[in-house]
Design goal:
Layout: H1 3-12, H2 22-28, E1 35-39, H3 45-52, E2 56-61, H4 64-71, E3 79-83, E4 96-102, H5 108-121, E5 122-133, H6 137-140, H7 154-161, E6 165-176, E7 179-189
Parallel strand pairs: 1-2, 1-4, 2-3, 4-5
Antiparallel strand pairs: 5-7, 6-7
Helix pairs in contact: 1-4, 5-7
The chain binds S-adenosylmethionine (SAM).
């Protein structure tokens, strides 16, 4: 979908829950605050939640209308809001403790390029969290985009995972009012240095 299509969706109504995705919250809650990028932030539910927990959060999305919804929320002044295309936007190397990419769906090569760059933004030990609809959701789950070319799988994320010390790379189930949805989760850390690889 193009930025204009997302703008139209966000103009119609709020799209996502105000609070964070429960799995995102569970993974991030134990972390001490630092610098974070919420890539394809939409209405900024995760950036706002992180900022409320003391993080310096940057919310990046190409939908100005989506971001505008977030900017109306309490605590929005603590978030840095950036209207930009994630396929070209860049952060300084080794400047972030966390990059969160929740439900961003791009063709495989574009997604891999974005995520490879995102790993470069992480400080040693910094975290990458990728969560989105799994390709198996088309046949075994509910909701989400229906184009297999833009969905995640553990196989598709494996080459980005190879750049990280991986804690979790797996398919996860998400219960929704319409049934069970299947997502892919990648949760890992930028290695402290070459010596730490393969732990
Ligand atoms: C399903 S929403 C998820 C929003 C948010 N991450 C969340 O979990 O609440 C997907 C978001 O990706 C954004 N997006 C898609 N392609 C993008 C691109 N190339 N650059 C920036 N944002 C993009 C859309 O505007 C939309 O806000």
């Amino acid at each position: 979908m193009r930025a204009e299509d997302w703008d139209a969706r966000y103009a119609e109504q709020q799209q996502w829950t105000a609070g964070p995705h429960p799995l995102v919250a569970a993974l991030l809650e134990p972390l001490p605050p630092g610098d974070a990028v919420d890539l394809a932030a939409g209405e900024g539910r995760h950036a706002l939640w992180l900022a409320g927990r003391g993080w310096r959060a940057t919310a990046v999305d190409f939908s100005a209308t989506g971001l505008a919804r977030g900017q109306e929320r309490p605590g929005a002044d603590r978030v840095t809001w950036v209207t930009a295309d994630v396929t070209t936007w860049d952060a300084p190397a080794a400047s972030q403790d966390l990059v969160l990419v929740a439900y961003l769906h791009l063709p495989e090569e574009e997604m891999a390029a974005v995520l490879r760059r995102a790993v470069g933004w992480l400080r040693p030990g910094g975290r990458l969290l990728v969560l989105g609809h799994d390709v198996a959701n088309l046949t075994g789950g509910v909701g989400g985009p229906q184009d297999p070319a833009i969905l995640h799988s553990t196989e598709r994320l494996a080459r980005v995972a190879a750049l990280l010390d991986v804690d979790r790379l797996e398919q996860v189930r998400r219960e929704t009012p319409s049934g069970t949805a299947l997502d892919t989760l990648l949760w890992g850390r930028r290695p402290a240095g070459p010596a730490s690889r393969g732990r």
